[in-house]
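Why does residue order matter? Because the sequence determines the fold. Keep that principle in mind as you read this record.
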Amino acid sequence: MRLAVFLLLALLSAGCRGIVSSRAEVTPPPQVASSARVTNGGVPNVVIDRSCSKLGDASDEYVCLTNSDTTPVNMSAWVLRNVMGRSYNFPQGFTLAPGQTVKVHTGAGSDSTTDLHWSYSVNPAWESSDKLTLHNNEDVEVFVSDPGKQ
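Structure:
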């Protein structure tokens, strides 16, 4: 009887090892930042809309950004920059809905889903001739607006 139990345990043990060793290794997909969804060639379709923007006006200056994508874009820690090194950092948790436009105001104010405020002390921060770039949270350039090259 002991021999039968021993053989049964040995067979079960060998069978389990065979099952484990015959399984393929599964590698999880790489982590992708929430703001770096793959659309339109690998970047979200958020654009700087100069026709909506009001640049160079110290009293009420803003830059418009529009999500032309079909899905929301998490813009937490994204950065809007100009060639002079001036930059606005998007707040944690800010998401731009599909088709929505947000105005990034240079001056102070209360933030909402359609208006963000930088509270930048030197006005104007942007000039109409400035090259503006939008970078995601991994510092990948998502969009460039350069009036000198349009």
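The helical segments are 2-22.
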